[in-house]
Specification:
The protein is an alpha/beta fold. The protein has 11 helices and 13 strands. The longest helix is centred in the middle third of the chain and has 25 residues.
């Protein structure tokens, strides 16, 4: 059976074409395989996003958590290929001893290029190149359309994550950099620190920067928390911002942006979120 050599940042994987016994630790990859009609046998089931809740079904094996794979169970399942992303990077070598392991990562500062690369790799493995090319063409067309509208309006934006009461900002080069690079919003502050958890900010900072749009990711809605992003931003300081007064505080589909960015379906939801914001 023909093999494909997939080179990635952690090494290389020799994967047979159209593998049948597939284990996935990356929900974005699972999202893409789902859209392609590819069946998987196992995945970590403890934090499955609602977007993919059908995979809670007992016909799919539970292979541990995102950070702690059940190596014994994975070995028993005899997978043909294992797909992982950044959360499993530290256990790559152990997984690769069990089966060819493909590491796919998304660079938020260069979202479209890295997603394109990942989708093409998956398309090659499963001989679905034409399907992937068609989907990428649609994604590119929609993104270019939005980019043109945003640049034409000259709008700027601030990306905010609410985490059970705390707030942080993300800017250019961050994991949510698609807002600026691909969608075309000027960063209202070009000096935001690039960090996994963003730069801690205050409500006064948001008012001082006074962006045209505020894009909000509610981390607590994804990981569990008692205070929603809407509750966090429901205060007199935020109500003085132009974004609030023009109904341009945009609550993004948080599970998608936080856990599923990079997948085929997730990317389409991200496009829909931003496109809807421009209709306000």
């Amino acid at each position: 059976m023909e093999e494909l050599v997939v080179e990635h940042r952690l090494g290389e994987a020799k994967v047979k074409r159209n593998p049948e016994r597939i284990i996935v630790f990356d929900y974005a990859t699972l999202d893409t395989l789902d859209k392609m009609g590819i069946h998987v046998i196992g995945l970590p089931k403890s934090n499955i996003p609602s977007f993919l809740e059908k995979y809670k079904d007992d016909k799919y094996e539970d292979v541990g958590t995102l950070f702690e794979p059940n190596f014994e169970k994975i070995f028993e399942l005899e997978p043909d290929v294992i797909f992982i992303s950044g959360r499993q990077a530290e256990v790559y070598d152990e997984l690769d001893k069990i089966a060819p392991t493909v590491f796919l990562e998304v660079d938020g500062s260069n979202y479209l290029d890295s997603v394109t690369r990942n989708l093409k790799i998956i398309g090659e493995i499963f001989e679905k190149e034409d399907f992937i090319e068609g989907e990428l063409a649609k994604i590119n067309e929609e993104m270019e359309k939005i980019h043109g509208k945003v640049k034409g309006s000259g709008s700027n934006a601030l990306i905010v994550m609410a985490n059970d009461g705390a707030i942080s900002a993300y800017g250019e080069g961050s994991r949510f950099g698609i807002i600026h690079k691909e969608f075309g919003f000027e960063p209202v502050d070009k000096d935001i620190e690039v960090a996994d958890h963003g730069q801690n900010i205050s409500f006064e900072y948001i008012l001082q920067q006074n962006p045209d749009y505020i894009f909000v990711i509610d981390r607590a809605a994804t990981t569990g928390g008692s205070v929603t992003a809407e509750q966090v931003l429901d205060n007199e300081i935020i109500k003085r911002t132009d974004a609030y007064q023009k109904d341009r505080i945009v609550y993004l589909s948080s599970q998608i942006w936080y856990v599923l960015s990079g997948g085929l379906g997730g990317t389409k939801v991200m496009i829909e979120d931003v496109s809807a914001a421009l209709e306000r």
